[in-house]
Design goal:
Radius of gyration: 19 Å
Shape: globular
Mean pLDDT: 77
Strand order of the largest sheet: 1-2-3-4
Helix content: under 10%
Number of strands: 10
Oligomer: single chain
Strand content: 35-45%
Distance between the termini: 45 Å
Number of helices: 0
Order of helices and strands: EEEEEEEEEE
């Protein structure tokens, strides 16, 4: 994370020499950042993901929520060293696409689940969107969906769905935006 001054220079008073580094666990196959949010009080919340192969169990995904004070120091009252991880086990893995942080510090995370039997999440031909809500303490909200996860039903006739974003309303309602590819109706899918 970098902080720039209003004139476009690195703010050396932030973190260490103007930046804060985020680290991932060892043996990660893929990782990336999805969102950064700054509260009115100046605290910073980042949401990122990692996917690792865990042998016979398939892939283990971690959706990681980190909270920092406005100085760039970890907010130690939030999880261990300012970090909360949501571990999601599934043979194919979950890919975090988007996140929103509410003023109270709770977060909504949305991504893609590759259905069992697919080899990769990105570019898979059998995807499904999922949504998870995290309380302001960083704990997954188990009252949301089924055990904290809502799996978006694919439209009838869909071969592939891709979540590309969502909005969280003030009352907590969520609007999801997906693109879906219909199943081919002819023997030669290039003719559809």
């Amino acid at each position: 994370i970098y902080r720039l001054t209003p004139s476009g220079w690195i703010d050396k008073s932030f973190g260490v020499d103007g930046r804060v580094l985020e680290f991932y666990a060892k043996n990660v196959d893929a990782a990336g950042a999805s969102k950064i949010d700054v509260s009115g009080a100046g605290s910073i919340t980042t949401v990122s993901w990692s996917v690792a192969d865990v042998g016979k169990r398939g892939r283990q995904s971690r959706w990681i929520v980190r909270r920092f004070m406005s100085s760039g120091a970890a907010e130690t009252t939030y999880g261990l060293f300012g970090v909360r991880e949501i571990v999601l086990d599934h043979p194919a893995g979950y890919w975090l696409v988007d996140a929103a942080v509410a003023p109270d510090g709770s977060a909504t995370l949305a991504g893609t689940l590759a259905r069992e039997g697919t080899e990769s999440v990105e570019g898979s031909e059998a995807q499904q969107s999922v949504v998870v809500r995290v309380r302001s303490s960083g704990v997954m909200d188990l009252s949301f969906g089924l055990n904290g996860i809502f799996k978006v039903p694919s439209p009838a006739g869909a071969q592939k769905t891709n979540l590309y974003g969502f909005g969280r309303r003030a009352d907590g309602a969520i609007d999801l935006a997906e693109v879906y590819t219909p199943k081919p109706t002819r023997k030669d899918p290039y003719l559809d």
